[in-house]
Amino acid sequence: MRIKYIATTVVCALLGVAATQAYIRITLGGKTLNWSSNTISYNIHTAGSDDISDNSHIPAIEHAFQSWSDVSGSSINLVRGADTASGSTAGSGHTITFDETNSSGFFPSGSGIVAIPPIAYMLADGRITDADILFNGNQFTFSTDQTPGTFDVQDVLTHEVGHFIGLDHSPVVSGTMWPYVSQTQWLHRSLSQDDEAGAVAVATGSGQTKVTGTIRKPGSTSGLAGAIVSASLTDGRFSASTVTSSNGNFTLRGMPAGDYNIHIDPMEGGMSSANLTSNSSISTAFAPTFYGGFDNPTLFALTPGAQLACGTLTANDDITMYESANRATLLQQGTSALVTIYGSNIPAGTTMIAKTNELTISNVSSNSSYVRATVTANSAAMLASYNLYIKSPNGDFEAVSGAVEVIQPAPNLVAVSQFQVSSVGGETITLSGTNFQDGAFVLFGGYESDEVTFIDSNTLSVVTPAVSLDLVDVAVHNPDGQQTVLADGVAFTGQAVFTQSWPTKGQSAGGTNVFINGDNFNQASKFYLDGQQVSFTFKSAKIVHIKMPAHALGLVELTIENPASSTLVVSDFFEFVSAPDPSISDFTPRKGPKGGGTIVDLFGGGFTGVVEVWFGVDPVTGLGGKLASATSVVSGAELKATTSNNSSSGSYALKIVTASGQGAVMSGFTFEGNNINSNGGGLDIAGGGCSVNFEREQQADFRVLMPQYLLTIMGWLILRNRLAKRRKKVGVKLD
Hints:
Layout lengths: L4 E6 L3 E2 L8 E2 L1 E2 L2 E2 L6 E6 L12 H13 L7 E4 L14 E5 L13 E4 L1 E5 L5 E4 L1 E4 L5 E2 L7 E2 H12 L2 E2 L24 H10 L7 E7 L11 E6 L4 E6 L5 E5 L4 E8 L23 E2 L9 E3 L4 E8 L14 E4 L3 E7 L8 E3 L5 E8 L3 E8 L7 E7 L5 E11 L4 E5 L3 E3 L5 E7 L6 E4 L2 E2 L2 E6 L2 E5 L7 E7 L5 E11 L3 E6 L2 E3 L5 E7 L6 E4 L2 E3 L2 E4 L2 E5 L6 E8 L6 E10 L5 E6 L2 E3 L5 E7 L4 E8 L8 E2 L2 E6 L2 E5 L7 E9 L4 E10 L23 H4 L1 E5 L7 H13 L10
Parallel strand pairs: 1-58, 6-7, 6-8, 8-12, 13-14, 16-23, 24-30, 32-39, 41-48, 50-57
Antiparallel strand pairs: 1-10, 2-9, 3-15, 4-5, 9-12, 10-11, 16-19, 17-18, 17-20, 20-21, 20-22, 25-28, 26-29, 27-28, 29-30, 31-33, 33-37, 34-35, 34-38, 36-37, 38-39, 40-42, 42-46, 43-44, 43-47, 45-46, 47-48, 49-51, 51-55, 52-53, 52-56, 54-55, 56-57
C-alpha cells in the first residue's frame, strides 16, 4: 500500500505595513513548491465582499491573476473557473473568498493579516495539490477604487497570486512580492521585473536564462546561507534576486538578455527570515558586496537562453548594517521626492548614490540614524525599479533594492462622448483625457468593457458593457496600476417596463399620488400624460411616484421615454374623476401584534365611500398587505378597521380604497412580533465541533508549517489542537 504525505502551509500573508526585493521560490522540507501543470484554474466565491456592492471585485480579481499570466516568457496560464457558493478551503477547488466573519479561523483578533493563501502540498516532491486565497473581511475594509482607509482588492490579490503560483516574499522594495501592503500606496497591482523573473522561474521551460554561482562566508571556504543575490542591469534598473541555499549556491532564472552587475546583501530591515515561509537559516554577519567591487563591478553579459556560471564570490567582512526603507518611493518622470533611509551608527560623511543616469541625487544630509536626499527622476527616465545605495567614507555600502520606482504620470479622464447609453451594451463611445496607456481597461460602475482600443495617450475608444444600472462612475485603469475615475460619468438606460400602478383613478383637481411599478426606470427617464411631460419622484429602477396634475375628466395615456431606447406607451393608464380623493391625516394606535385583532381609528376625509382598508402595505410600492378583518365607517372623517394576521413584523403603511377605485396611503403602522419562544432562539448543535477521520492512504501524515512571526508558542499549540479536530489549511500573512 502506497502512503501519501500531504502537508499544508500558510504562505507569507500580507501585513499592513511595507515590502522586500527579489523573487524567492517557496521551499519547504528541502522541496520547492510547484504545480504539476502550468494551467491552473481559480474560482470566485459568489458572496463577494460586503464592502463592494457593484461587483467591481470580479474584474479586480481577474486582472490580478491575468497580470501573472501575461508575463513574457512564462508559460503560466491562470484561468477563471466556475464561481462557487462554497467558501470552504477544503477540496481541490482554488477559491478566492472574502472571509467576513473569520469562519476560516485564519484571522484572529489583532493579527494584522490582510490576506492569506493556504497551500496544500505533497511532502515527497513539493507538488501543490490545493491553494486558496482569503481576504480578512472581518477586520479590514476593501475597495476597488483606492478609497482612502481601505485596502485595494487588486493590489492585495496580485501579491497573493504570487504565493499561489509558488513564490515566497521578495526583498525588492518596489516588488509585488515585497511583504507589506498599505492603504495609501499601491505597489502590487503591476509586476516588477523581479516578479516577472519569478513567474518565468516557477514555470520552467526551455530557453531560460540561468545564472549560477556560490557565495562564501568571510574568511571561510564554507557557503554563505540565506544571502540575497541581486542582479541589476548596468543602466541601473533592478532585474531579479534570490537567496542562497544552505551551501551558499544560488540560481537566477528568467532574466531578459542584457548586461548585469551582481551583488549580495544580508536580509535586514523590513525583510528577514520571518518573512520567509521556510524559516530558513539566514546569515547576516557580512557586508553588501559587489562582484568586482562597488566602484567597478564585474559585468555579466546575458544572451537569450544563456547558461552563465559566475563562480565564487567571498563576502566582505561584517560592518554596521543599515535598515532598508519601508516602502518604495514612486516618482513620475521629471519629478522629485525626498527619500530617507534609516539605520544606526551611521558614520559622518555617508552619502546616497544611484548607480544610474536615470536618477539624480542632490541635497544629501545624514546623521547617525539616517541618510536623506532629494531624488529626481529624469524627464525621459525609463519606467523601472532602481536601487539606491548609501556609502560611508571608508567605502562600506548598503543597497536598498528597488528603492525607487519610476512611473508614468497618473491618467486623468476628463469627458465621455456620450452620456446616455443603452443598458443592453454594445455602443462605442470615446473617452477623452490625459496619460492613458496602451493596455488600459475600463469599468462602468464595476462592469468591465470587453473592448478597449488605445487611440493615443489622450483618447480611448470603448464598447459599453451590458449594465442594468442607472448613473455610474467610469474608471480607467492603466497597466501600471494607476487609475482615474469620472464620477457619474455615464447613465445606462433601457426600455422602460410597466408592471402595474395604483391607484388607477383620482380627482380631476390633481394631487393624486400614483405608485408606478416596473423596471429600467432612471433619473433621465421622461414621463408624459397625453403628451404633456410631468415630474416624477425616482425611488429605484423599479419604482417611481407621480403626483398627478389637474386634468379634464376621462382616461389618459402614459408615455415613458428612456434615452437611447424605444418609447413605452401605456393606454388607459389613469382615469380622472370628479369625486375628491380620500385622505388620511392620522391613525391610532400605531402598532399592534402581527397576529391581528387590533382596532385602529383612522382620521381624515372622504371616508363615506371607503370599502377597503389594507394593513402591511409596502410604503414605496403601495402594494401588498392584508385586508382588514372588519371595517366600520363612523363618519366622513373617521373610520375603524381591525388588523388581520400579518406574515412578519416590522413597520409598514396602510391604505384605504373607495368603491370608485380611488385611495390614499399613510406610513407608520408597526406589526410587533408575537408567539415568541421563551426557550430562546439560539442554534443548538449537538456533539460540539467537527471531527475528521483521515484515511491512511490519502492522509497518513498531516503537517502544518508556518513562519515563526505568525504565532506564539501558545498559539501554535492551540492551532495544532484545532487541526486535530478540524481539517483546515493554515495561512500566512501578506507582509
